[in-house]
Design a protein that fits this description.
The protein is an alpha+beta fold. It has two helices and six strands; from the N terminus they run αβαβββββ. It starts with a helix and ends with a strand. Bound molecules: zinc ion.
Length: 115
């Protein structure tokens, strides 16, 4: 499943970051989840709860910040924000737009602890 491989990669990233900072416990994982990332938040949460038990993130809570879609209009140069898949400029109704944000998933912040 898509979400499982994402979580595996996410936890690996957390482990690497914790090692670099001499921490052996991650207490909070904060991610940004674009609405166009194709990731289902509830599935991601479940996958995280399942996989974290094996490692350094065992007691970590996952915080998901849903990132709406931000597009920039190439006709009128204004930005629009959509909370669903929609690439039409809200200012001039043009579809000649460029996606600025909301497409990806990103690790934003980690809270570490040294035990
Ligand atoms: Zn426009």
């Amino acid at each position: 499943m898509h979400e499982y491989s994402i979580v595996t990669a996410l936890i690996e990233e957390c482990e690497k970051f914790a090692q670099q900072n001499n921490a052996n416990k991650v207490t909070r994982v904060s991610i940004k989840l674009g609405i166009l990332s194709g990731v289902e938040p509830s599935l991601l949460k479940t996958a995280f709860e399942t996989f974290k038990l094996e490692g350094i993130c065992a007691e970590a809570t996952l915080e998901m910040n849903i990132q709406p879609l931000v597009i920039c209009c190439l006709s009128c140069n204004k930005e629009s924000i959509h909370d669903q898949r929609n690439i039409v400029c809200i200012h001039c109704q043009s579809t000649d737009t460029k996606v600025l944000d909301g497409e990806d998933m990103m690790l934003m912040q980690l809270e570490l602890e040294q035990v």
